Amino acid sequence: MGNQKIAVVTDSTAYLPPDVQERLDIPVIPLNLVWGEEVLKDGEDIIPTAFYQRLQAASTMPTTSQPSAGEFVDFFRRVAEEKNTDTILGFFISSELSGTVASAEAAKNLLDDLNIVVVDSRSTSMGLGFQAMAAAEVIHAGGSIEEAVQAAETIRYRLHVLFVVDTLEFLHRGGRIGGAQRFLGTALKIKPILELENGRIESVEQVRTKKKAVARLVQIAQERAGAHPVPRAAVVHANAVEDCRRLQEQVQEALSPQEIYMTEVSPVIGTHTGPGTLGVAFYTTP
Question: Which of 113, 128, 253, 259 is 20 to 30 Å from 63 at the Cα level?
Answer without folding.
Answer: 128
